[in-house]
Design a protein that fits this description.
2 copies of one chain form a homodimer.
Chain A lengths: L1 H30 L6 H8 L3 H7 L3 H25 L6 H12 L2 H14 L2 H26 L8 H18 L6 H21 L1
């Protein structure tokens, strides 16, 4: 009779972690890093301080887990969505990436990036995540574009696409940049297609 | 005899403002927005609180003035530096822009961008500056590249170059990204040259 009990407890634990991670992203988006205290997150998630500390010992652990989790969810969503795309898909792929880099994941991650510049504990935790997420975003983009990285210039064009997305994410922080972004991405889709074909 | 007196006072005022602006950028780079208090800036600049308040009434006014001033200085430097460049200059121009977007100006501006997301007073002051700096950076890049924006796609290619620079700035916040950035910019120079020629 102990197995089902343990399983119910595991389910409760998973639900608690899920609520904490969602509350963390909401706090980061609404109040930024400085407003994202563990107390506020626990309150918003409806989780006791004890339960929170059981799952995440520090503020850094909590925010890193939240951003990592959301990144996994979003990347999986994009892979599913991309499965239905036609062969001529460059523009659609860029639009999907742009949604990712102008959404809550980018905003939350940006809050951490900037805070980590001047917070050593956060920085130590964030640098490996940034490297892992960078590799994952690159792999995803290669896959979605059907890019052949053995051809010269293709790897850099994929990287440039992701750096461009980060720049577009920044440009949409304070004002609505969607019209300009749309025109720019239509042009980049042409250039990127040419680069992928030519190479 | 009043003119030279006034002029000496003006000189002292200008020197005070200069020290305050330099101290503000140093604080933003070293401690971020949250660590950039008016008290700390006055201390670091060796300026009395009264003198500081005489020149900049609020923290927002101070940081906006500092970033605006540094942007003007850097843009003027780039224009001077670019005057000596050869006709085939795309790669050199990209390298100059990349230095701008991975240096103290970008870091200080980024601190303000991110803080302004969740600080209404700062946001109200920053949005017009962001628009003005965006236009100025665009104009500078068009000028340096000798780009003809009446041709289709050229305007978007210049914009993409600046969005890319912002992305590269972000990518170099926590780790040394210079080797990757160098390879990427060599490829971007080829793509950009082709776009400017073809159009």
């Amino acid at each position: 009779m102990s197995a089902p009990t343990r399983s119910r407890q595991e389910e409760r634990s998973a639900a608690t972690r899920q609520r904490l991670m969602e509350a963390t992203i909401e706090c980061l988006v609404e109040r930024g890093w400085s407003g994202t205290t563990t107390t506020l997150v626990a309150e918003r998630a409806g989780v006791s301080r004890g339960a929170q500390l059981h799952h995440y010992r520090t503020r850094s652990e909590l925010v890193i887990a939240a951003v990592e989790h959301l990144a996994e969810v979003r990347v999986a969503e994009i892979r599913r969505e991309a499965a239905g795309l036609p062969q001529q898909r460059t523009q659609a792929v860029l639009d999907m990436l742009a949604r990712l880099y102008t959404g809550p994941l980018f905003v939350a991650a940006l809050e951490l990036w900037v805070a980590a510049r001047t917070d050593e504990e956060l920085r130590a935790a964030l640098v490996p995540l940034e490297a892992r997420f960078g590799r994952e975003a690159h792999r995803l983009t290669v896959e979605l574009l059907g890019a052949d990285e053995s051809k010269p210039g293709v790897r850099e064009a994929v990287q440039a696409t992701l750096d461009l997305m980060r720049g577009l994410g920044l440009a949409s922080l304070l004002t609505d940049d969607s019209a300009r972004r749309g025109r720019l991405l239509r042009q980049w889709a042409k250039i990127l297609d040419q680069t992928l074909r030519e190479a």
